[in-house]
## 1
Amino acid sequence: MGKYVDLFESRLAQYTGAKFAVAVVNGTSGLHAALKLAGIGQGDEVLVPALTFVATANAIAYCGAVPHFVDSEESTLGIDAHKLEHHLERISVFWEDGILNTETGRRIKAIVPMHAFGHPVAIDELKSVCERFGLVIIEDAAESLGSFYKGRHTGTFGKISVLSFNGNKIITTGGGGAILTDDEDLAASAKHLTTTAKKAHPWEYFHDMTGFNFRLPNINAALGCAQLEQIGGFLEKKRALARKYQAAFQEMEGLAIFSEAAFARSNYWLNVMLLDPILASERDRIIQYTNSRGIFTRPAWKLLHTLPMYETCPKMDLSGSELLEKRIINLPSGVKLS
Ligand SMILES: *Cc1c(COP(=O)(O)O)cnc(C)c1O
């Protein structure tokens, strides 16, 4: 029955270098389950970039936990580890095996770094901050299948990580996602939690906790196997397109095409045009003009702390993200584009 699910999971593990992969219905559910498995619950605070897709914060809220928004920086478009360290020094105190936010009285337990548009965050810097403050890392690698940090696949640095195979991602299963981990017990718990927590038995229905029905259907897993076989070609096309954009705009003043950091090999899932700060006010005009000419450029996500349900959440100074959001224009990046 689950033949392709098993196959897809073992191929994902093989491709990413993670010891275990558990396929789920989508990346959002994967994040929800991953946070639960990491012990995140009611009243915990979880650090998350303000510059990410809304699902990253939603998954935290589904657990009854509170997103605590952190800033991003220009060289990776991901969490600014240095600035985060200063923020935690200022607002937190050590308590038991972790930290308390002195401004809210809540425990800050974990962090969810996200590899924006496929570009790996500065993981070593982030890891050292997390070790210092006792924070668990749950990686949102939804956009970064095929992206590597110092030769190692993204999604293999956290205690637990999540991929997405939504229709717009680098490979798709229609809808789908996966949880990655090196921890065998955690992988078994992930399977259990996402398959209604049913104890294996030939006929009895015994469930030992409130589980989820997050299992990826076999038919979607079959698609995933076929897609994963093609990932090399997809990555070549994405990287070739990024090179073309870079060459085309090289001489252009006032903007740059984002390119991978020295430590990274990016999947260039979505190409980013970065306007000079002085041109940030022109972003909407450029988006409007290009769309009117059939070039479907897009802004980045609205920063999550500005959305109504997250307005009152704790946050650090977000001036880096605020400026980045005004400067980013996402360029058409489909693999069929040439
Ligand atoms: C796509 C995406 C998700 C959610 O994945 P779905 O499979 O669409 O649920 C989560 N986080 C980020 C950053 C994403 O880009």
Note: The chain has a mean pLDDT of 97.
## 2
Amino acid sequence: MSNHPKDGVQLTSFLRPDLVNMHAYSVPDSSGMIKLDAMENPYSLTNTLRSDWLEVLKHIDFNRYPDASAKEITKTLRDHLNLDEGFDLLFGNGSDEIILLLMLAMEKNRTILFPEPTFVMYRLLAQIVGLKSSGVTLKESFQLDLDAMLAAIAKENPCLIFISQPNNPTGNVFDRADLETIIRHTNGLVIIDEAYQAFTEHDALTWALHYPNVLILRTFSKIGLAGLRLGFLVGQNAIINELHKIRLPYNVNSLTQASLLFVLEHYDAFVKQTQQICMEREKLLVALRQIDSLTVWSSETNFLLFRPEKSANDIFQALKENHILIKKLDQAHPILSNCLRVTVGSPEENIAFLDALKKLV
Ligand SMILES: *Cc1c(COP(=O)(O)O)cnc(C)c1O
């Protein structure tokens, strides 16, 4: 054991040098907090529903691997979405995993493109897999800068374009005509990330029919199942079949597969909660707009973006001392300077947040 590595320098000497400058995705400790930072659904299910669900889980053969091709959930979700023959589905351990799979499938040295500010995982995962990324700043209205997007497409010839529709963290939907122009001007795949589809009237599923380079990404996280870790991608067979080659065989575990069947059978309960969240969002929007010193943007998601006149950082910290956790976006992008984002909580949570906030602004 004479040349056994003894210090950290040797232990990390074989790692990618760019890891040194990267940071692990950090999730703040939220124990004992009113948690309004991560777009989770605040409601729980009835006791009956919970025990019926547990009853289903009781019968899982935990000694066996999950169904590697996820046949049952694929069929059930296909029916639920009314998917046409030519389409296929790919499941992931959250849509985050699907974003990673898409990137792993790309040629080296290619570029991925997205408007900015947007969901941070696009850039982070590109960095992890070693793809270049290019962000195109949104207009002040948070709409796409179409000319800049088209110029970036011409210059970078991106292999993937990620569009969060509605956009996280700005909460708005992008102009559909702009999106179609982008889709028609690229040779790359356009991923419409509909993580917040449940909270808006807009839906791009049919675009996957018309445009072979469009893929639709969705997740069950924001409607109340963040703990399950289940996302899915819809697209034409030719692309989805290739992506299956990159996926780990058992990426969706037995608990999650069984749970999805249960969830789709009882989908009404989740739809009801979603509608309630949308109602609460509008109430919260009105209440925030009554505060003179705030700019608040309307939203088609389960969160609201706002900008106080006072320091966002001070307000964030003071809320935290009051056991209310929201999200600070001040450093995320220049057009979000001094901005904060709050997830729509239960009526009680929203009142607690508003009361605390009013004392601080
Ligand atoms: C939350 C979020 C996701 C990630 O969802 P998971 O399925 O929980 O991994 C993807 N895209 C956007 C835009 C999101 O806000």
Note: The pocket of pyridoxal-5'-phosphate is lined by residues 39, 94-96, 119, 164, 168, 193, 195, 219, 221, 226, 231 (CB under 6 Å).
